[in-house]
Specification:
Structural class: mainly beta
Largest sheet: 6 strands, antiparallel
Number of helices: 1
Strand order of the largest sheet: 1-6-7-8-9-10
Strand content: 35-45%
Number of domains: 1
Distance between the termini: 52 Å
Radius of gyration: 18 Å
Shape: globular
């Protein structure tokens, strides 16, 4: 066998056996970023930015994951930015509008070139895990589960988009 063939085979094996999780990153200075390699020349980058809840926030009394019944959350998600090989995704506000006090995020591979962005947030009884599933460069599912009662307290949203061709 040629050295090139052995090198190529070794490279392919290393890609197929790599971890399906990206590094777990926390929200330092209100921003967390993660990246994952899904295959050769297939890289996903995610960034989640938070802000301190403004005093005049219109939905401060609304239920948020990661909040508390007696007081509003301290931080809310301002924006989620995801790109794959430089191509930015459309992320609807409904994907993250009710997620508060995020602590960390990570990316995970899914079958058929999909991936999942996981945002863990809240604390103790108010903790949650939000799983945002993507395929074909758009979100298709969101599931948020309670950290304390995952089988009893959860919600799931399925996304579908009508792509117009102009």
């Amino acid at each position: 066998m040629s050295k090139f063939f052995i090198y190529t085979l070794t490279l392919l094996i290393s890609f197929s056996t790599e971890s399906s999780f990206a590094d777990n990153t926390s929200f330092e200075k209100g921003v967390a970023k993660a990246s994952i390699v899904l295959g050769i020349s297939d890289v996903v980058n995610a960034s989640v930015e938070t802000i301190v809840l403004p005093n005049d926030y219109a939905y401060s009394k609304a239920y948020t994951w990661g909040g508390d019944e007696t007081s509003p959350p301290k931080r809310i998600i301002k924006t989620i930015t995801i790109s794959r090989n430089g191509q930015a995704f459309f992320i609807p506000l409904s994907t993250y509008a009710d997620l508060a006090n995020p602590r960390n995020l990570l990316l995970e591979k899914l079958p058929a070139h999909g991936f999942r962005l996981i945002i863990n947030g809240g604390d103790a009884a108010g903790s949650y895990s939000a799983m945002l599933d993507f395929k074909k460069n758009e979100i298709f599912r969101r599931k948020v589960v309670s950290g304390e009662f995952p089988k009893e307290a959860w919600e799931e949203t399925t996304f579908a988009f009508n792509h117009l061709s102009n």
